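Hey L., structure's done. Input below.
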Amino acid sequence: MANAGGTGELWGHPKGLTVLTATELWERFSYYGMQGLLSLYMVKQLLLPGHVEHVLGFPVFRAALEGVFGPLSTLALASQIFGLYTALVYATPIVGGLVGDRWLGQRATVVIGTLLMAAGHLLMTSEHFFLVALACLVVGAGFIKGNMAAQVGRLYATEDTRRTRAFGIYLIGLNVGAFTAPLICGTLGEKVGFHWGFGAAGIGMLISLATYLIGQRHLPPDSIQQKGEAVAAPRLQAGDGQRIVALLALMIPYILVFSAYQQSWNIFTIWADTHVNRVIGGFEAPVTWFATLDGILTIVAVFVAIRLWAWQAKRGREGNDSRKISEGLVMGTVGFLILAGGTFLAAPAKVALVFPVIFFVLQDLMIPFVDTVVMSTYSKNAPVAVNTTMIGVYYLGSSISNFTVGWLGRFYETLGPANFWLLHAAVAGAGLVFMLLLGGVLNRMMAPAAPSTPGEEIEATALTVEASP
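Output:
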């Protein structure tokens, strides 16, 4: 049922979508503001002598990492920390989803998560509490991510065609935060001091919390059993197991292409800092501004994709989810081939700015075709009994890809830049091959089965709306 927890519509969508999008905008502002500086901060300051000795618990932490991955250079260590941190950020939504589904409800879980993330960003202003700050950010993000996306999905009935477009709008809001963060947090971090950038990220998180609290009346009700009420917990239905298997398989191409794409927040920053000619009219742009370009182009790409799909739908030509994902994988693969080609052509000089710009154009066109479609597919096809938990599984795919990003980063120094980007083209290309071979099969497995009786249909629909707090 549409607008399950809202109070009216705004621009053709429930008002709750505006609240959730604005909340996520500021959460992403803080997250990407910090993430855009993280690798630079570690390589240029934190991990250098005179600084690393001040980090609470770092000798034990480094010994644990090198016990698993072997001796690590400063760059490899920074990449591994980046990958481990971002991997855990996307792994913890499974725990956050369970907390939201079974205990606290989505709203309280999101509030706790925003408080933890605000604390983490503010602790980043001190070298001493670096590892403590990362721990707060990891747990806080886990409490927010799955519960936010699940609330977006529950604003719409399963058959509501606005759902995919709603996730596109949600992604636009996310990327408004993502592209403004480098302009503010990134510029402060590079030009004034890293800790100023981290402090600005913390302020953004507090704005996110205020936005969410003010707009709660427009949000869908929590789907947890209320005290004193005998509300039966949702149970898996016939055919749900097949849909779960298909959704898990869909993570394979998703993980592969984002294992390549997410490198643009890690080694790409280090590479562009020294290998790309960033001088425009006598002014050298901060390297973190590539993240701003990334965010702007993603917003444009989502608008293009939404308009394209709406145009195709009117003419009965809109592709299914598998086709859209495959098209996105083509763009992701070609983008890395262009980055590698530009690096080959420029050597030993610096790479012309046009190559990384084209790279981001293609990568950001990939995002709505892959990320938005996969998120919508999970929200639409995940069984009601485990809907928020399966959103957590979706974020687990991001966790695995981010961990792979950190692991792949160690090959940068041995392969050299051009071959390093070719490696990433091959990783994304493997995802494309998978979808070309099995995309149709997955589409058929996720096709919803018709309920055997009208009563079953009513029950299945009722399970999507539970008592509000």
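Residues 15-46 form the longest helix (32 residues). The CA atoms of residues 111 and 283 lie 42 Å apart.

-- N.
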